[in-house]
Amino acid sequence: METDGGRDRLEYTEYGTGDAWVVLLPGLLIPRRMHDHLARTLAANGAHVVTLDFLGHGRSDKPDDPFAYSVTSFARQVVALLDELGAGQAVIGGTSLGANVALEVAAIAPERVRGLIVEMPVLDNALEVAIVSFAPLLLGARVFPFAFSGLRFVTRRVPRGVVPWWIGIGLDTLDHKPGPLAAYVHGLFFGRVAPPASERRRIQAPTLVVGHPRDPLHPASDAEMVASELPNTTFVKATSILEWRRSPERLDLAATKFVLDCWRPARRTRRTAN
C-alpha cells in the first residue's frame, strides 16, 4: 500500500475473509508480525484481519524526515489502509504506540471505527518514564550512529527460523538504521502522542481496554483512565505484560468475543469490568 502521493510504501498482511474487518497495530518500532497469533485466532473465528507496519516499522519505508512520524500521521495511514481495502469500518486494535494510534483514529475518523482494542496505552502517567527511556535512544542514534549500525549488522545475521518467535520479533525491532531511527523518535517526541482527554471522552465506539500491572512505561493507571473516560468500555486487567504473549488464551477469548460483538447488529451499551 502506498500513501502520501505514492512516496511512502507501507506493508500489511491479511488473514481471513469477509466484511468483519479488524486492523491490528504494533508497538513502538516493533514489526506487524507481533500480532500474528491474535490475527490468526480472530480470523479463525470469522474476522477479516489486517496487520500493518506503520511508516518506520517492519518492512515499510523508513524516511529520515522527523516530520514523517507522529501518532496523527500513523492514524491517517490506518484510514488510508481502510480506503485501500475498501473497508468502510473496522475494529482498530493496538498495543502501546498502536493503542495510542487506535485512539487517534477514533478521534480523527470516528465514522471508520466499529470498535477499539486498546492494550497498554502510553498517556499522561507514563510521560516521565517515556522520556527517560527514549531520550537516550534519540541521542545515541544521532551521536553514536556507528553503534546502532553495528548492532543492526549483528542482528541481521541471526536466522529468524532458528530462534524462538518472540526473540525474532526482538531482533527485527533492533533492525533500524540510525538516521531513520533518530528521525522516528524525534517526530514522536515533539508531536501529538494521543488524543487529549477532552477528545477521548467524545469517542463513542465500543472499546476493550487491557491494562497491565507493574509496567512503568505502560502504567495500569493510564489504561484505567482511558476506561473511565470512554463511555462504552470493557476493562480487562492482565496478570502481566507477558500474559498475552505467553498464555494468551484468556485475553484471546476476550478479544474474540469483543470483535464478534462489535460486528453483530446489536451494539453494547453498558460498561462492564473483569
UniProtKB/TrEMBL annotation:
Residues 21-127 form the AB hydrolase-1 domain. Keywords: Hydrolase. GO terms for cellular component: membrane. Gene3D superfamilies: alpha/beta hydrolase (3.40.50.1820). SUPFAM superfamilies: alpha/beta-Hydrolases. One of its GO terms (molecular function) is hydrolase activity. InterPro entries: AB_hydrolase_1 (IPR000073), AB_hydrolase_fold (IPR029058), AB_hydrolase_sf (IPR050266). This is Alpha/beta hydrolase. It comes from Nocardioides silvaticus. The lineage of its organism: Bacteria, Bacillati, Actinomycetota, Actinomycetes, Propionibacteriales.
